[in-house]
Design a protein that fits this description.
Blueprint (H helix, E strand, L loop, with lengths): L4 E9 L2 E9 L10 E4 L12 H11 L5 E4 L24 H16 L4 E5 L1 H14 L8 E5 L12 H6 L11 H12 L2 H4 L17 E8 L3 H13 L4 E10 L9 H17 L1
Helix pairs in contact: 2-3
Keywords: Hydrolase
GO molecular function, one term: hydrolase activity
Organism: Nocardia fusca
């Protein structure tokens, strides 16, 4: 990993400069498609130095792939309890998605077989960007990686496998449906956009997407979204693999010294190997 070259750059976006970071492997595999990786943080936090961004990118670059991360526009924090209150911001949807689309379009100019991926809120942005690319006149992504993703406007009711994993104390500290709704409403800024399938892909038209890896935490209520989305992908005829990383909670890719990070990134790299 120490031999990976790291370069910070900026792109010109619709609203100004977009910071990006390039990870260039010392021994690149010319057949391996690059990865555009998008951090999470409830649309309100995170950046290029966030371990969920930086550590994951280093691990993937060590496998011989070029990786790009993007510092997309963030919005103000929101109340998780009490009366909802959302501060004004020009960074709400579609600003974060526009930044991601600018970063991936620039990368695909030289590398048309690019894989899109992200974690949590970043996974939502990755999936939305993949749908935008599908509907454009240009190439779509070669693959899509969604780690402990939020993909639906409203968190679906827990499917039985998720409910079984969250029995007892394992449910403590997981997201409630109300918190996820507040987070998503804070992102879009209106009830009308909350239902827009271009924003939250869950329940929308998924035909034409590339192969998808869904990487989930074992003890995470957001697994309801990934599990439901996996079923929607299958119904749409999209090749997908849904992997539950044992012993993990939401955000395990932010903990590079953990077994969950090791297992999760190894799964991610093996899946990328099969796309080569």
């Amino acid at each position: 990993m120490g031999d990976t070259q790291i370069r910070d750059r900026h792109l010109s976006g619709l609203r100004g400069r977009i910071p990006i970071r390039e990870y260039l492997p010392a021994a690149p595999d010319p057949a391996a498609p690059p990865l555009l990786w998008i951090h999470g943080g409830a649309f309100v936090s995170g950046g290029l130095d966030q371990l969920e961004s930086h550590a994951v990118a280093l691990r993937v670059a060590a496998s011989g792939r070029r990786v790009r991360t993007v510092d997309y526009a963030l919005i103000p924090r929101f109340r998780v309890w009490g009366p909802p209150k959302y501060r004004p911001s020009g960074n709400r949807y579609p600003a974060p998605l526009d930044d991601v689309l600018t970063a991936v379009a620039d990368l695909m100019t030289d590398e048309p077989r690019t894989v899109l991926g992200g974690a949590s809120a970043g996974a939502c942005l990755a999936a939305s960007a993949a749908l935008r690319l599908r509907d454009s006149s240009g190439p779509g992504p070669a693959g899509l990686i969604l780690a402990y993703a939020t993909l639906h406007a409203e968190l679906p009711r827990l499917p039985e496998p998720v409910r079984a994993r969250l029995r007892g104390r394992r449910r403590i500290g997981t997201f409630t449906r109300e918190v996820i709704r507040r987070m998503n409403l804070n992102y879009v800024g209106s009830e009308e956009l909350l239902r827009d399938p271009d924003v939250f892909p869950g329940g929308g038209k998924l035909t034409g997407l590339p192969p998808v890896l869904l990487l989930d935490a074992a003890y995470d209520s957001l697994s309801a979204s990934s599990t439901t989305f996996a079923g929607e992908l299958t119904e749409a005829g999209i090749e997908n693999e849904h992997v539950i990383v044992p012993g993990t909670r939401h955000g395990f890719l932010n903990r590079p010294r953990s077994a969950g990070f090791r297992d999760g990134t190894e799964t991610l790299v093996r899946w990328l190997d099969r796309l080569t």
